[in-house]
Write a structure and sequence with these properties.
alpha/beta; Isopropylmalate Dehydrogenase; ten-stranded mixed β-sheet; two-stranded antiparallel ribbon; 22% strand; binds 3-isopropylmalic acid; binds manganese (II) ion
């Protein structure tokens, strides 16, 4: 019996999670597994009415679950930063979800904004470090609000943190068993402390994986290759900040935020799966948002539980429905409503 914690969150989060849960129910019947869900109201509304983001006891409670299914966090009436650090980053950090796994996979040529790129050209995974770097929140103001003010924001990289991430990247590349190539994406030419450490650890760990080809690309060049030669990539490993940036570009070349999903992984603990697009306030409550990203996140969640067949079937259903039914992956342009897309998925399954 799987215990799934559901955090629908803000904006369009609840609408896409509702469709994901429909698909989960259909998959459980077909593939004969049992689960229970419990919904948590963390997010903007709760913060506005109680002043609370997440408390220690909430984290302790979440540790009892097999996985977490998250919609979106972000509310137009809450000052930027409060919910991001108080809920989303708090979850990632306190549950030690040190990997952010973001597949970039083009399901159908018609959704790709790049000329002449086909599904076989865009199929890679970004392994983003998810617990350190610039996201650590280290830094200070000096002489704040004076003309001599200095703002310092530190990228914090521990040997242990970098190594566990890199090891995960090698293991993942091996298990994925495609091109068997791991590319380190960094900035060794300028950020000579952080990326020196990353490069040294990468080269060291690589010796234990003679079956995996390694490569290096600077982050700026990486964005160029995403557009020009995405077929070069298999698995990319990078730090928290660069991973954040390049995966938005990755989402666009795979068809947009309507389809992009990710997993915040603690290989030894509780992992959390989410569409990466955010709360999309302007579409809230309109039943027009694309639920496929949330459904792709569900497919990743099922895989993490060990339900490989159900996971693959959900992904196949997404591919079929997207290709045969949807006019576009963008909100309001699909030719179907949010709930109709969920129904199509269930029927296909
Ligand atoms: C993401 C988001 C978050 C991040 C924000 C909302 C804190 O952009 O999941 O990529 O920066 O990690
Ligand atoms: Mn982001």
């Amino acid at each position: 019996m799987y215990k799934i914690a559901v955090i629908p969150g803000d904006g369009t989060g609840p609408e896409v999670i509702r469709e994901g849960l429909k698909v989960l129910e259909a998959a459980s019947k077909k593939y004969k597994f049992q689960y229970e869900t419990k919904s948590f109201d963390f997010g903007g509304e709760r913060y506005l009415s109680t002043g609370k983001t997440l408390e220690d006891k909430d984290i302790e409670e979440l540790k009892k679950y097999s996985a977490i299914y998250l919609g979106a966090i972000g509310h137009p009436q809450v000052k930027p930063g409060i919910l991001e650090t108080g809920v989303l980053l708090r979850l990632r950090f306190s549950l030690d979800q040190y990997i952010n796994l973001r597949p970039v996979k083009l399901y159908n040529e018609k959704f790709c904004p790049l000329k002449d790129k086909k599904p076989e050209d865009i199929d890679f995974v970004v392994v983003r470090e998810n617990s350190e770097g610039l996201y650590k929140g280290m830094g200070e103001f000096r002489d704040k609000a004076t003309k001599d003010e200095v703002a310092i924001q530190v990228s914090y990289n521990t040997r242990k943190g970098v190594e566990r991430c890199i090891r995960y990247g090698f293991e993942y590349t091996r298990k994925r068993n495609k091109k068997k190539k791991l590319t380190l994406c960094g900035k060794t030419n300028v950020l000579t402390y952080a990326w020196d450490l990353w490069e040294r650890v990468f080269n060291e760990v690589a010796k234990e994986y003679p079956d995996i080809a390694t490569d290096y690309a600077h982050v700026d060049a990486t964005t160029m290759w995403f557009v020009k030669n995405p077929e070069w990539f298999d698995v990319i490993i990078t730090d928290n900040m660069f991973g954040d940036i390049i995966t938005d570009l990755g989402a666009m070349i795979q068809g947009g935020m309507g389809i992009a999903a990710g997993g915040n992984i603690n290989p030894q603990g509780v992992s959390m799966f989410e569409p990466i697009g955010g709360s999309a306030p302007k579409y809230t409550g309109k039943n027009v948002i694309n639920p496929l990203a949330a459904i792709c996140a569900l497919s990743m969640l099922l895989e993490s539980l060990g339900e490989a067949r159900a996971s693959a079937a959900v992904e196949d259903a997404v591919i079929e429905v997207a290709a045969k039914k949807l006019k576009s992956l963008a909100a309001g342009k699909m030719g179907y409503s949010t709930s109709e897309v969920g129904d199509l998925l269930v029927r296909y399954l």
